[in-house]
Amino acid sequence: MSRLGDVFRNAKREKRAVFxxxxxxxxxxxxRSVEIVRxxxxxxxxxxxxxxxxxxxxxxxxxxxxxxxxxxxxxATLSGVLAAVEVVRQDLEIPIVLFTxxxxxxxxxxxxxxEDSVIAGIDGVLFTDVPAEExxxxxEQISVRDIDLIMLVTPTSTRQRMKAAARFGGGFxxxxxxxxxxxxxxxxxxxxxxxxxxxxxVSRLPVAVGFGISTPEQVAKVAARADGVVVGSxxxxxxxxxxxxxxxxxxxxxxxSELAAACKR
Length: 265
Known about the structure:
48% helix; globular
């Protein structure tokens, strides 16, 4: 069984939601990213989503866009991100999911990317801009190597589209909490509970909710309903504010600890 599957089963047994933390790889540097991942694991994160920096991140809001710009300016590349994961794997078994757009993988080569992801220790890959209808070339190289394809569904996804995503997906189904891009938001979408219910009805996979969740209070509300909670921009914004300093990992760990605690039901 996959590490992702183990995490969700353990959390269910412990009566809590899985805490999935997102950071942009290479912000402020790949070396610091390794430290940040270790800090998130210490804080109680169950899964790490590593964003692959891309020059045109259309699914991301301003906070994550700026993080991608900083990472690219610091020299981050997809091969560099995979190398950083190899370093993390020297002492951590925490599941790691790459959050990426199709272009970096296509340029790298899908087969080469899949092979190198296995070597690095990647557990899952989430493509933000590849719909189910275009997923087959990626599935043929990635899923066959026992790396989970994490599929996105949104509040505007029909039942049929959710079913299509679930057929390709593994690990968990990522339910976007609201329409729009990533970024903190004051209120959760009024239809979120219904969307979680529909996702569960069409899929055997655990349902994790992300986009717009930024406070422990919001985490607790989502954790009461969903199998997993994703927090990204709120962590990324703290990284951006502090920059490349020795205190960065400690600050991330402190904040992430509060988010992890809120996942308990």
